[in-house]
Amino acid sequence: MDQQALPLSRYTVLDLSIARAGPTAVRLLADWGANVIRIEAPVEGDIAGSRHGPDSQNLHRNKRSLCLNLKSEKGKAVFMGLVKKADVVVENFRVDVKRRLGIDYESVKKINPSIIYGSISGFGQEGPYAERPAVDQVIQGMSGLMSITGEPDRGPMRAGIAVSDTSAGMFLSQGILLALLHREQTGEGQWVHTSLLEAMLCKLDFQAARYTMNKEVARQEGNNHPTLSPMGVFQTDDGLVNLAASTDKMWNAFCAETQAKQLANNADYKSVEGRLRNREAVWKEVNKITSQLSTAELVEKMNSVGIPCGPINTIGEAFGDEQVKFLNMTKTASHPSLGEFELLRSPINLSAFVQGGRFEKPGPELGEHSAEILREFGYSDQQIAELQDNGIIK
To answer: What are phi and psi of 115, to 5 degrees?
Structure first.
């Protein structure tokens, strides 16, 4: 357990979110010390299997679980009692659902005007698609990401991770931190919201800017960079590498290191623009050279002269890499029935805070901390027992 008080330890977060995007946002707050209370609905015949899996443990470590029936008036009253003392609420319900439950921003703001209310949706809180359900892959397609992922003329391809979910979560957590800073200056709470679609359009970055500025529609380029050459995947005599020798300095270094005088002297390849214009020919020439060297040789040679070059690892190989090991990208979680296992740590490094080697808590069981949490908010054991007897909490 980390002994140092973490930077968000003075904040209490009520986490109503499900699926991936919302929990990703809250995970950042939990990892940096926030008192995160995961408010979960009662589930008939709740099965621990999925809660014990890598996905759930990864998303919900460092959180406590309060199982609360928000569909009942008494359950809603308990929630609003927590809201009075909380700093942040995070949810990803559809617009109509949170209003029907009476836990939307306007309702919560009446109870606690200084609350920071964070929301993630698929398409935005308003607009023609506001009521639509959404999942990551649908947003990848609608945002244009799938149209630029994969090889030319082979159809669209999804990214290998839930990139719109995780991006929206990251942006929401940033927004919550901005709102907390604003509240420290003004005392004002506010509604912070983003959507999978907004996050994914933002993540298109320069590919989107090519369109917004010049109406240039990017296309699939496979493993080659869309605007730089040579930058992409090349063969070696025992596999493949990623190599980027796109600037004039890097190109000249590549030619010198591999003794490729014919490339160095080719007038068509002298400039960035020329290499891009002739990139298919450049790729073939470079590939002839790289295919004569082993992956390890090429990685060593290229990096020694300032050319980015690296192997294409499996996930297992990535975690076996010496630099990844040096970075200590995992921390140990200890679970009463699962034992000890490793999960990814926060990738944020702060010089004033040492990354400890253990998570404070694993992903919780459903309602594991219900009584504990309510006691902290002033409920007596008798009141807690009554709520349990009436099915309001578990």
So the answer is: -70, 145
Active site residues: 165
C-alpha dist (Å) from residue 243 to 81, 206, 223, 239:
57, 20, 11, 13
How many other C-beta atoms can be found within 10 angstroms of the C-beta atom of residue 280? 10
Q: Which CATH architecture has domain 12-204+327-389?
A: 3-Layer(aba) Sandwich (3.40)
Q: Measured between alpha carbons, how far is 211 from 147 in angstroms, rounded to an integer?
A: 14
Q: What is the pTM of this model?
A: 0.95
pLDDT along the chain (394 residues), means of 10: 78 97 98 98 69 96 98 97 98 93 97 98 97 96 98 96 98 98 98 98 98 98 96 98 98 97 97 97 98 98 98 98 97 97 97 93 97 98 97 96
Predicted pLDDT at 48 = 52
DSSP codes joined into one string, 23-92: HHHHHHHHHTT-EEEEEE---TT--HHHHTSHHHHHHHTT-EEEEB-TTSHHHHHHHHHHHHH-SEEEE-
Helix, strand, coil % in the chain, rounded to nearest 5: 45, 15, 40
Largest CA distance in the chain: 86
The CATH 3.40.50.10540 portion of the chain extends over: 12-204+327-389
CATH code of the region 231-313? 3.30.1540.10
Enumerate the CATH 3.30.1540.10 domain ranges in the chain, comma separated. Answer: 231-313
Please count the other Cβ atoms lying within 10 Å of the Cβ belonging to residue 277.
Answer: 14
Cβ atoms 379, 82 nearer than 8 A: no
